[in-house]
Automatic annotation (TrEMBL):
Gene3D superfamilies: 2Fe-2S iron-sulphur cluster binding domain, sarcosine oxidase, alpha subunit, N-terminal domain. Keywords: Oxidoreductase. Pfam families: Fer2_4 (PF13510). Signal peptide: none annotated. One of its GO terms (molecular function) is iron-sulfur cluster binding. This is 2Fe-2S ferredoxin-type domain-containing protein. It comes from Microvirga lotononidis. InterPro entries: 2Fe-2S-bd_N, 2Fe-2S_ferredoxin-like_sf. The lineage of its organism: Bacteria, Pseudomonadati, Pseudomonadota, Alphaproteobacteria, Hyphomicrobiales. It comes from the Bacteria.
Amino acid sequence: MFRRAPDRIRAQVTFTFDGIPITASAEDSVAAALLAAGVRACRTTPVSGSARGPYCMMGVCFECLVRIDGVGNRQGCLVQVRDGMKVETQKGAHALSAEPAL
Ligand code: FES
């Protein structure tokens, strides 16, 4: 469904999603990199546990929430992927904590 245009392939970075290495364009958002890699779901809902994935790609729908380097509630569509980044599925609601927003 999603395919990268040949002229849009730039420098590459490698990050992990739930421990699985994924190579992406250095210009990708986390959500774009996951979709390009075939990942369709990156979180589960707090109420029913159903799987959700990036939808609007512009910071409105919050369907792209993931844990990035241990910090939950990050919108994958608004974060640029970095080499060595550790991205994880956000399961349900992320607990509130005093951790600073990055
Ligand atoms: S995909 Fe909608 S807020 Fe990220």
